Amino acid sequence: MLEQITDDIYCLVVRFKGAMGEVNSYLIKGDYGYTVIDTGIYASETKELWERVFKNYKIEKLVLTHTHEDHIGLARWFQEIYKIPVYVSKRGYEEMCKGRDTKARKSRIKELIKKHGAPPIPLKIKDESSIYKFEPDGFFCDNDEITLGNRSYQAIWTPGHAPDHYCFYQPDTEIMIIGDHVLNHLSPVIGLWMGEELNPMEDYFYALDVLKKYPVRLALPGHGDMIKHLDERVTDISNRHEKRMEQLIEIMEHEEMTAFKLTSKAYGPMKSLAFASQFMATLTRLIYLEKQSKIKVKTKKGKSYYGLPAKAFISD
């Protein structure tokens, strides 16, 4: 069930239906039991898997990299049913509080997609509020030293994929638990899943640069294979975003468009949930480009249109 990664770190692949289909949970061995990193979504199949784990391993505590559904999904269940203490960042707790109000979140998402020209169907969101309705047992902040197993790790704030995302770095072993900040074979989606129009791409580029300060022998991601050459992967992801932004600028050469139309031009016809991620990725790149003054945005009949600076822009 568990794959041994190092002398004290084990990986449990938690599989489920929908979304990414699986998440890597890490169990770090200590004198008082195992520290678990992330859980998978709340579902019968994930609970059954963890119940088998609990029969064979003593769990000391649960620590979360961030509060997206596939990472925090069973945290409340861990705490309430098995009395396992749950630790989250203070930034994560703020996101949990937002996640408890599904009505407000849906309203923000609805307004966001309407403003940027997308129909509501591909961005329909389910009610996940119940997984956030608990009080964590403890908190950590930026650069705190936290104990995972028997070793001390540094909590590194790495926003972008999520505003509350943290990586955990162990300097003696040069191991970094990297969550969804960097993945091996695909780029993490940089989206606006709470419906707040922020600039997460700017945060993400900043956080990628932060990682370059750390010598990393092995990075353990929240999905997919381990990463042995983190610097190279960081460069690959940065370059991919730059190419995607160059593509958007080329598409806008002769016409200003909404984020929805630009997504269709860049990725092709809408494909259910995949299109939601593509739309969010496009929108956050457009926001970043506009903040960098590389493109301009204008409002027409309540919708945002993006185009090149040389074009004439008149707001209504």
From TrEMBL:
Residues 22-223 form the Metallo-beta-lactamase domain. Gene3D superfamilies: Ribonuclease Z/Hydroxyacylglutathione hydrolase-like. It comes from the Bacteria. It holds the Pfam family Lactamase_B. This is Metallo-beta-lactamase domain-containing protein. It comes from Oceanobacillus sojae.
